[in-house]
């Protein structure tokens, strides 16, 4: 991961954390405001743009392998 990618990752993480904190401060019964929805959509869009299809495939393989390992089934990609 390059320095620029690490900076973008840190920015996305900070934005997501800030949004979560703002949402936690609101009344549990109140719906998400349009501004918060737009921020969430922007974070998701930026994340998906950064990841790309090939990297996303690798991420999902790692998640599936780890889940199978923890379940005692071994890797599904062996």
- Indicate the multimeric state: single chain
Instruction: Give the % helix.
Output: over 70%
Strand content bin: under 5%
Low-confidence region ranges: none
Average pLDDT number: 81
Strand/helix succession: HH
* Largest pleated sheet: none
Number of strands: 0
Question: What class do helices, strands and sheet pairing give?
Answer: mainly alpha
Q: How many distinct helices?
A: 2
What spatial form do the alpha-carbon principal axes imply?
A: extended
Radius of gyration: 17 Å
Terminal CA distance: 26 Å
Write up what this structure looks like.
This protein has 78 residues and is an all-alpha fold. Helix content is 78%, strand content 0%. It contains two helices and no strands. It has helices spanning 3-25, 34-71. The longest helix is centred in the last third of the chain and has 38 residues, at 34-71.
């Amino acid at each position: 991961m390059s320095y620029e990618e690490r900076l973008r990752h840190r920015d996305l993480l900070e934005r997501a954390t800030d949004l979560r904190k703002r949402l936690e401060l609101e009344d549990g019964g109140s719906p998400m405001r349009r501004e918060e929805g737009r921020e969430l959509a922007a974070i998701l869009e930026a994340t998906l743009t950064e990841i790309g299809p090939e990297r996303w495939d690798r991420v999902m393989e790692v998640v599936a392998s780890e889940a199978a390992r923890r379940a005692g089934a071994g890797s599904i990609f062996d």
